[in-house]
Automatic annotation (TrEMBL):
UniProt protein name: Transcriptional regulator
InterPro entries, alphabetized: SatD
Superkingdom of source: Bacteria
Organism, as annotated: Pedobacter roseus
Pfam families, alphabetized: SatD (PF16264)
Length: 203
């Protein structure tokens, strides 16, 4: 079982290229040492991540792009098997790739920026409802909220006072930004997703 995230940058032609460096850096961070990611057609990308990390990775990529306002990102998460593993992700095949493409293709019609598809329809239905609710918060992240979410996800073991020291902000402004971003609730969604994933798919 692997997870493929397929995405593109919303309105990339209208905005400066600062998002490109943010995207490349974010993809390097999320794919870890494996470096399994690709940017193609200028503003589209694919990255392979652990299935357990899918929601956290999506939130992280979103935060990294939202820092470059008004840029945003659309992503389809696909979980499944892999048939042909090639050096380039775009030349690999399997259910994870098919599901990721299908999830991504469904976004425009559903008028949403994030969706998941697996071979388990009940799981998909439940998690996609939770994702849609989370997007009410994530789609409205301003630059500061996105910066703080990015920093918090990069330093999950640090206290808010330590995040404040790194960011050069006061602890109260860090706390306020994370509250505005609904960071705690998004982490709760991540925990729920992991629990359901382990119960249904990875069991």
């Amino acid at each position: 079982m692997i997870c493929i995230v397929t995405g593109d940058i919303v309105g990339s032609r209208k905005i400066k290229d600062s998002w490109l460096l943010s995207l490349k850096t974010a993809l390097k961070v999320t794919s870890g040492q494996h470096a399994k990611w690709e940017i193609f057609r200028g503003d589209s990308f694919q990255v392979e991540v652990e299935p357990e990390n899918a929601i956290k990775v999506a939130a992280y990529l979103k935060a990294c792009i939202r820092v470059n306002k008004p840029a945003d990102v659309r992503m389809g998460i696909g979980i499944g098997g892999i048939k042909n593993k090639r050096k380039k992700l775009s030349e690999s095949s399997g259910d994870a790739f098919i599901n990721s493409g299908a999830a991504f293709d469904s976004l425009k019609q559903a008028k949403t920026n994030l969706a998941i598809k697996t071979d388990y329809p009940d799981f998909d239905e439940e998690i996609n409802v939770v994702i849609k609710l989370s997007l009410i918060a994530m789609d409205s992240w301003g630059v500061v909220a996105a910066e703080m979410v990015k920093l918090a996800l990069e330093n999950e073991n640090l206290l808010q006072s330590e995040l404040a020291a790194i960011s050069g902000r006061t602890q109260s402004s860090v706390s306020e930004a994370l509250k505005r971003a609904h960071y705690t609730e998004i982490m709760e969604m991540d925990r729920l997703y992991r629990k359901k994933l382990n119960q249904t798919i990875l069991k």
